[in-house]
Write the C-alpha cells for this entry.
Amino acid sequence: MTLRITITVKPNSKQVPLVVNNGGEITVYVRQQAIGGRANEAVIELLAEYYDVPKTRVKIVKGHGAHRKVVEIDK
C-alpha cells in the first residue's frame, strides 16, 4: 500500500525536528538548511521514523526544491 501525502517543510527551524498533523495538513520542521539536499534528507528520515518504515520506503516525488512537497510512503 502506498500513501501519498502533501507536506510543508520548514527548514532551518529553531524547533526540534517535528512532524505536526493539523487536520490533514502535515508540516515538517527540520533543523537542516535547504542547501545541498540536506533538508530533504532530514525530511525523509523524520517521516520514516514518524510512519515507522525504513528510509528507503519514503520518496519525495515532487517539489524537491520547494517548501511544499509530495511524498510517497510505501507501507
